[in-house]
Design a protein that fits this description.
Blueprint: E1 18-21, E2 38-42, H1 45-48, E3 57-60, H2 71-80, E4 84-88, H3 100-109, E5 115-118, H4 132-144, H5 150-157, H6 170-180, E6 186-189, H7 229-233, H8 237-250, H9 270-286, E7 291-293, E8 306-307
Parallel strand pairs: 1-2, 1-6, 2-3, 3-4, 4-5, 6-7, 7-8
Length: 311
């Protein structure tokens, strides 16, 4: 199958400023009309923020949303119509291995060369004891002919021996792509990574179109759970269970974020996220780049990322 390789994006925006826009409430604090550069955004933020900015590159790393072979999900991408959509192979994690080929063909039929599948699973993480999720991811990788993970390609491109992890937040992969494309300077907004699950909320807008497209995952404000029921019911029983567990956790007092395993992407491990951002910042700075943060929270704790007030 003809899947564009990440190698073809190396240096694609050399010297151009970039924004990495996450889903935390602080993304609305930025004056996007003054920005002239490349915008990377993640999850369902481009849907929530479509009246604020135009997303150039939309990045996913979630087994629930987005699934580009579903008509409803493909419609979400077409509604935003970014230049490119990067979908992590984790989207196939809960799919039957025998269905992967068909779903790849369907997803490609919805788009005109703008869909790129990428591997964000480290090579050694696929060698652990087999299960259906890893089998499906590996089958998709083989069918697409993907040789390198994003992490290994980035480290090779910049001459680093080590890599960042599989990634507990998709914003890491968006930042990695911006660095790979040579963007500079890079500013991060809307990436807060709180200490407690109950604080893990996303900016919500009364006029957003998120629920038209069945968005799910940790994209719901806990004070509005009942109004989300229609969107939740569109998802599979696996998704419903995950959402209900996540929503229940939000009501528990001082419940720390659950430590994830290497293969999990649901509950963020704050320490590993911090280490990954430190790694990417060091890599970018060592190649002459500058990294700014106008989010609040974890990134304020990092010495090699310059915290600024949002313009």
């Amino acid at each position: 199958m003809d899947n564009p390789t990440l190698d073809s994006f190396i240096g694609a925006h050399s010297g151009e400023p970039a924004l990495i826009v996450g889903g935390a409430p602080s993304w609305a604090n930025y004056s996007y009309s003054t920005f002239n550069g490349v915008i990377f955004s993640v999850g369902d933020t481009p849907l929530r923020a479509q009246n604020y900015f135009k997303t150039d590159y939309w990045v996913f790393a979630n087994p629930h949303w987005i699934r580009p072979w579903l008509t409803e999900h493909a419609a979400a991408i077409r509604a935003i119509s970014p230049k490119k959509v990067f979908v992590g192979l984790s989207t196939f994690a809960f799919q039957a291995p025998r269905s992967i080929s068909r779903k790849l063909l369907i997803s490609y039929s919805y788009f005109d060369g703008n869909l790129i599948y990428y591997n964000h699973h480290l090579e050694n993480s696929l060698s652990c004891p087999r299960n259906k999720s890893l089998e499906s991811i590996e089958k998709a990788r083989a069918l697409l002919g993907i040789q390198n993970s994003l992490q290994s390609l980035l480290s090779k491109t910049y001459g680093y021996r080590n890599t960042y992890s599989t990634g507990a937040t998709v914003s890491l992969h968006a930042l990695a792509l911006a660095i790979l494309m040579g963007c500079n300077p890079i500013t991060i907004i809307g990436v807060e990574i709180p200490s407690y699950q109950k604080e893990y909320i996303y900016k919500d807008l009364s006029d957003n179109s998120v629920h038209l497209y069945g968005s799910c995952g940790p994209y719901y404000n806990h004070d509005n759970i009942f109004s989300k029921s229609k969107a939740i019911l569109r998802t599979s029983s696996r998704n419903i269970l995950t959402i209900l567990i996540n929503q229940a956790i939000r009501y528990l007092p001082e419940f720390p974020l659950i430590k994830k395993t290497e293969a999990s992407i649901f509950m963020a491990d704050r320490d590993s996220i911090k280490a990954d951002f430190e790694y990417l910042a060091s890599l970018h700075i060592s190649s002459g780049g500058t990294l700014y943060n106008c989010s609040r929270g974890l990134l304020d704790e990092l010495d090699n990322i310059i915290s600024i007030d949002c313009p």
